[in-house]
């Protein structure tokens, strides 16, 4: 019931265009703070474009939205309770039934009283494990966050084709920290959303 009501809030969103500021913290990339536009359209189209024209969110992760996590068939395991952002949350583990799914396991931290996903940790076959934490405010009625913090292992980071920055492949650092997973982080602070106004498919090509 909790998962159905949480999904129901997300299902009200057909599409949105959001603007915000993106901060990227990856040890081997010097990426300036950027203005971004985020586009979403059902069922699973998600695109992040910054003022340089390219997104630096790790390859494969862009397609993992909250709606994407909740589609398809899965076995739900009650993993008890926890605390996130000083809020008591219910912890649910989702195991996809279909063997073809790229997602191996998703762990959702849901604020029960508001049916909001506060945090999600997703392990995929091809693109490692990602953690997303959401802070809600102005657009809470749509279950859309004011801030998203996206954390991932830099060993799974794939630089988009054709992108050149001050780039250090981290070989020396990785040698010094053998066996450790270096974390990368992307934060997006949203300033506004335009919701259910219609978006052409051409945006996502």
Describe the fold and architecture.
The structure is a single chain. The protein is mainly beta and 205 residues long. The protein has one domain: outer membrane lipoprotein receptor (LolB), chain A (Clam). Helix content is 10%, strand content 44%. The protein has 3 helices and 10 strands; from the N terminus they run αβββαββββββαβ. It has a 10-stranded antiparallel beta sheet. Strand 1 and strand 2 form a beta hairpin. The chain is globular. The termini are far apart. About 9% of the residues have low confidence.
Count of spatially separate domains: 1
Shape estimate: globular
Mean pLDDT: 81
Q: What share of the residues lie within helices? A: under 10%
Helix/strand-derived category reads mainly beta
Order of strands in the sheet with most strands: 3-2-1-10-9-8-7-6-5-4
CATH architecture: Clam
SSE sequence, one letter per element: HEEEHEEEEEEHE
- In CATH, the topology is named outer membrane lipoprotein receptor (LolB), chain A
Task: Describe, in short, the structure shown.
The chain has 205 residues and is mostly beta strands.
């Amino acid at each position: 019931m909790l998962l159905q009501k949480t999904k129901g809030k997300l299902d009200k969103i057909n599409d949105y265009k959001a603007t915000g500021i993106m901060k990227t913290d990856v040890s081997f990339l010097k990426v300036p703070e950027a203005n971004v536009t985020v586009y979403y359209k059902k069922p699973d189209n998600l695109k992040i474009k910054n003022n340089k024209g390219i997104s630096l969110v790790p390859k494969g992760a862009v397609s993992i939205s909250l709606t994407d996590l909740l589609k398809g068939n899965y076995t739900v395991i009650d993993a008890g309770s926890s605390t996130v952002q000083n809020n008591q949350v219910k912890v649910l583990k989702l195991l996809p039934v279909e063997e073809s799914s790229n997602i191996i396991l998703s762990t959702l931290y849901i604020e029960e009283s508001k049916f909001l996903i506060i945090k999600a940790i997703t392990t995929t076959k091809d693109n490692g494990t990602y953690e997303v934490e959401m802070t809600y405010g102005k657009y809470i009625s749509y279950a859309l966050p004011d801030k998203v913090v996206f954390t991932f292992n830099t060993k799974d980071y794939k630089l988009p084709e054709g992108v050149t920055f001050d780039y250090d492949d981290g070989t020396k650092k990785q040698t010094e920290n053998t066996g450790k997973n270096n974390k990368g982080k992307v934060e997006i602070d949203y300033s506004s959303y335009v919701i259910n106004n219609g978006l052409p498919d051409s945006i996502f090509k």
